[in-house]
Design brief:
Length: 72
């Protein structure tokens, strides 16, 4: 069986980072690690607040992707 990207799907997070087979595994590993820390009582904080720069980065990445992948 193929992985999550074997059918040619694409994923862009709200902060403008595209997911790939490599970085999605890294993200899931980190998520599991942080969950284990929280489960042991360690306060891990959270992500930084969503900023205007995040919104602009998302819009820019989406525009680039659409320009490159949409066929006229």
């Amino acid at each position: 069986m193929g992985g999550p990207f074997s059918k040619g799907g694409h994923a862009l997070n709200p902060r403008g980072e595209f997911y790939s087979e490599k970085n999605i595994r890294e993200r899931l590993t980190m998520c599991d690690f942080m969950d284990a820390l929280r489960g042991s009582g360690i306060c891990t904080g959270g992500p930084s607040a969503f900023s205007r720069a995040d919104r602009q980065n998302f819009a820019s990445q989406m525009d680039r992707f659409l320009s490159k992948n949409i066929k006229a």
